[in-house]
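hiii, so i know i said id send this last week but things got crazy w the move. better late than never?? heres the sequnce for the chain we talked about at the cafe, plus the structure i predicted for it. fair warning i was half asleep when i ran it
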Amino acid sequence: MKYSDYLYFWVKTGQEITAANEIKMIFNNEVTSLQLLIETFFRKQGKVKKETHLAFPGYVFIATDINNNAFIKRFKECFYRTNSILRLLCYGDTSEAAMRTKERAAIDCLW
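okay and structure toks below
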């Protein structure tokens, strides 16, 4: 499924998965969260260990077909019903929340 917009939230660090689940629940699964993970390898006491963690701690990326204005209206309900979301990131003083084309291409390349 191809989504028209990617949006992102600033959330409390460590509560990214909780926030993503709350967003999906409030939006009745009309959104999909993008889990961008990084695998790192390190050596400790002669053994190589692998760790997986979020690429962008404190942020939740979602994909949706909901248009920008409708999404922002529905986001307000989401914001007041949860303690893990700090804010929806927009561009400057505008209400443009959808990710710009260059940023979306970078995320698509990583994801």
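btw The chain has a mean pLDDT of 81. thought thatd interest u
miss u guys!!
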